[in-house]
UniProtKB/TrEMBL annotation:
An annotated GO BP: signal transduction
Protein name per the record: Ras-associating domain-containing protein
InterPro entries, per the entry: RA_dom, Ubiquitin-like_domsf
Residues annotated as domain Ras-associating: 1-59
Origin: domain of life: Eukaryota
């Protein structure tokens, strides 16, 4: 992470995440904190169009910072 932030000249904050983009599936997701990046990348097939990039995501921990309950869901 330090190498990525120094290369991109960015300050690393709690809002930064490693994001995976899989164009074939039209999917974009933040990698989990406990995922081993090298093991994950080694499972990719050669020649795929997948991307991993560092991005500041304001929605990364949004569920925990400001949880909202659906008005149709009853909480006891």
């Amino acid at each position: 992470m330090q190498m990525l932030t120094s290369t991109n000249q960015k300050l690393l904050t709690m809002r930064h995440a490693l994001v995976e983009r899989i164009p074939v599936l039209h999917l974009e997701r933040c990698l989990e904190d406990d995922e081993y990046l090298l093991n994950y990348l080694s499972s990719w097939k050669i020649g795929n169009e997948n991307l991993i990039f560092l991005e500041e995501r304001h929605d990364l921990y949004g569920l925990f910072e400001s949880p909202k309950v659906n008005k149709h869901y009853k909480v006891n």
